[in-house]
Amino acid sequence: MILIGPPGAGKGTQAARLVDKLHIPHISSGDMLRAAVKEGTAMGVAADGYMKAGKLVPDDVVIGMILERIAKPDAANGFMLDGFPRTIPQAEALQAAMTSAGYAIDRVLLIEVPDGLLVDRGVGRRNDPVTGTIYHLTFNPPPADIVGRLVHRKDDTAEAINERLHYYSSWTAPTIRFYQDLGILRRVDGVGTPDEVTARITTALAS
Ligand code: AP5
Question: I need a labelling partner for 155 at 20 to 30 A (CA). Which of 31, 32, 100, 192 fits?
Fold first, then answer.
């Protein structure tokens, strides 16, 4: 499965709920890249500047990272990709790798949220590095005793979010058409409470 959506649409929030039910790994390209930046690997050093500015990391870096990850044993029975693919070359590389392994993507879920809501969602986001929980200062407030350890992502400024939205409409929109043409895309309204969105996703997966 693949989750697609603009920055702040709720992909990470929904993925965490879905993988618990489906017992498949959640593979987030953004989380993997942030881990590489934190560890200071060569890939992390190369990706850091792009990510801070809200730009896309070059295709060859991201494609290699994801194809290596989905070949691991824990992904043998399925996986949920979040944030990948984001460009046509990424979608084509994934399709080729899946075909040669004898597998197919079952569903691509597109979480749709109007641009006007996305800057607020990003600017107010706080991530818990201990549990991985995604909070929002207003929409999903963290417990007071853990506020001090929460992380505000470097690319969660209004400026970087607007840049990410620009890349989304320029590069990811064609990727959405790619999956629409394959007949496996399902659109889900991402406005409402996280529970409401989860219910819509469950319905979309059954269709
Ligand atoms: P990535 O980490 O993938 O970021 P993104 O796609 O921009 O998505 P986000 O993580 O910002 O949002 P989300 O949809 O997961 O929302 P969340 O659930 O957190 O990528 C970061 C960067 O890495 C990219 O800009 C690029 O540089 C690089 N990169 C990654 N993949 C790449 C690739 N394939 N190719 C090239 N470069 C790549 O929710 C957001 C907030 O909203 C939270 O605070 C949450 O609590 C709140 N929220 C969630 N749902 C709701 C709801 N229903 N109502 C109200 N609030 C809600």
Answer: 192
The one catalytic residue among 34, 121, 125, 126: 125
84 CB within 6 A, ligand 1: yes
Q: How far apart are the C-alpha atoms of 157 and 163, rounded to whole Å?
A: 10
DSSP string for 31-49: HHHHHHHHHT-HHHHHHHH
Q: Which long-range contacts (CB under 8 A, 24 or more apart) does 97-106 make?
A: 97/67, 97/70, 105/1, 105/2, 105/179, 105/182, 105/184, 106/1, 106/78, 106/184
The answer to whether 55 and 167 have CB atoms below 8 angstroms apart is yes
